[in-house]
Amino acid sequence: MNGCAFCIDRPSREAGQALRKLQALPIWRGVPLFTPRERAALAWTEALTEHPANRVTEALQTKVNTQFPDKELEAQS
Question: 47: which of 3, 13, 23, 55 fits an S-S bond (Cβ 3.0–4.6 Å)?
Fold first, then answer.
C-alpha cells in the first residue's frame, strides 16, 4: 500500500515470477517485471476502471491497439 517497490519485490523473489508479478501489481509502473503487452493491458484497465472520461487518452488507445489486435479487443467487449 505504501508504493515501495523494494518492500514488495524483495520477499517475493524466491516465490517465482507469477507471485512476484501479482504482488507488484500496485506498483506495476515502477518495476521492470511486466512486458510491454502487460503494461498496455494494465494501463488500459486502470483507465477504464478509475476515471474513463479523463484517463483514456489517444496515446493510451494507440499503445493498446499496438499490443492487441482488434479481434482480441472485441472479444473483451
Answer: 55
